[in-house]
Write a structure and sequence with these properties.
This protein is of the alpha+beta class. It contains 13 helices and 15 strands. A hairpin with a 5-residue loop joins strand 14 (382-388) and strand 15 (394-400). It starts with 8 loop residues before the first strand and ends in a 31-residue tail after the last helix.
Amino acid sequence: MALDEPGTELPVSEAQSGVWLAERSRPDLSSPYLWGEYTDITGALDIDVLVAAVRQAVRETEALHVRFIEAPDGRPVQRVTSPRSTSLPVRDLRQETDPHATALAWMREELSRPVDLAEGELFDGAVLRIGDQRHLLFHRVHHIALDGFGMTLLSRRVAELYDSLLCGGPIPGNGWSPLRAALEEDRAYHASPRRETDRRWWLGRMEGRPEFLSLAARPAPVPAGSLRRTSVLSEAEFAQLRSAAGEMGQRWSRLVVAAAAVFAHAMTGSRDVVLSLPVTGRVGEQSRRVPGMTANVLPLRLPVDPAATFADLAARADEEIALVQRHQRYRGERLRRDLGYPEDGRRFFGPVLNIQRFAYGLRFGSATATVHNVQAPPSEDLSLVAYDRGDGPLTIDADANPANHSPELLREAGERFLRVLRQAAARPGRTRVARYAVTSAAERDRLRTAGTGPRQRTTGPARTALAWFQAHVARAPGGSPCGPPRPASGSPTGNSTPGRTPSRPC
């Protein structure tokens, strides 16, 4: 299938349409769906060859050479343009006091600049030299053009081209399919009976769903940027987690999912846990060979029984993920509308859990490389992203919406999830879920000793239960004293719906 000529107008996929509509719904924000990563390259590197490899890989990526415009009927379309030469400046930061910190600050500044989807460049980057044999290859891309899978294809191609150009050998073909192939696969799905089959399956799977589980008191609009807290499961602990997974007959990623379910259960009190699970949305051979945007986010519903073993929960997670993947082409945005979720600024179904394995196997000649995320699209509530970069440890980024999560709340959430994950690595699989501790020993000691000290004289107003309740209602009219505000009975997520549980227990 040949590439389309410049000037050709193509439809957008439903995945792209979701990003387009989400960004246009918040004109007050500056391109919130930009995301960035860098490849940390250690060893001897020919910078000129690297720049040439990136420029050629970008030229080959059709999804980066379109402009998104609004058709007369209001629908977005993408117009193919001629490939432009990529500006890839090289910045030498070796004389800075902290070259790595300076590089990160520069990247974040670049990511704060808006991109005009109708005229601007969807991809930008730079090479930042922070040591004699250490370079950071920075990529900034708009999510409407590439998702994580698409970035993997692009990064692999850059490394492949670098090696070929360095050796002066023949340039291998990229093996990619044109952008139109993925769009036609998307169109065929929407015209097929399979779409209705998937819709009916999802409606049945989510019947009697719980409310959106959140640590926040109330929903908030998507922010311009997220709070982030990064923690690390050490190389030894990660090896222990993989070993524990092997003993349970599971992949280590399933233990991470089970740990997230235990964490959400412990923090909200709900035994019916719904997480938001990113999936590739690529089930056909053509779409798996197109650097583009097809990613989807769907609900992963897990019952958490405190009497069950952790191994049982991990096995259930594995079964449920297989079902989600079987029905992954039905769009999450559409499903949320089908299920009658409130229009409260959220687009997903609960805390996001994203497990990314950067098994790129990237090498640039003799130099080794690891991939690092700088900024993801903003978190609407709470997102937990686990990165296996292939360099030993497991890195976990906890991102939160700053409009309804304080830095302290995010710190506690990150620490507690990591605590559960460490227990998953260390405890036998037969350990009951109820035995997993979310709070630290120090926190439990404070709880045990609370109220046991000498009586304190107070000179302020009495803080009775009634006074506390009145103060809470004054701060959050229409809310629940035990958690986020609930809609009135009879609404799509009201208390009259059977099977619903409060987001936070009293």
